[in-house]
């Protein structure tokens, strides 16, 4: 039987960019894997961050 993987997902309420920059500055072994912003035709407000992925120490974190 395969054991399902649990993934951390955090909601940042339109403050994702600031939050991930803070988190990655606080932990030595961390990096932003993906972070893009919505354009004029995106489903989100232009300039806001799309769902993203960061790596901190031993785990991958997804956020929106």
UniProtKB/TrEMBL annotation:
**GO biological process terms, semicolon-separated:** methylation
Annotated ranges, domain PhnB-like: 5-56
UniProt-listed Gene3D superfamilies: 3.30.720.100
Question: Which Pfam family would be a valid example here?
Answer: 3-dmu-9_3-mt
Q: Mind telling me which InterPro entries this protein's record contains?
A: Glyas_Bleomycin-R_OHBP_Dase, PhnB-like
- Which key words tag this protein in UniProt? Methyltransferase, Transferase, Ubiquinone
A GO molecular-function annotation: methyltransferase activity
Protein known as: 3-demethylubiquinone-9 3-methyltransferase
* Native species: Staphylococcus aureus
């Amino acid at each position: 039987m395969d054991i399902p993987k649990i993934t951390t997902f955090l909601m940042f309420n339109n403050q994702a960019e600031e939050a991930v920059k803070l988190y990655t500055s606080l932990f030595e072994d961390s990096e932003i894997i993906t972070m893009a912003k919505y354009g004029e035709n995106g489903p989100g407000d232009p300039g806001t961050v799309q769902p993203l992925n960061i790596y901190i120490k031993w785990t991958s974190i997804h956020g929106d």
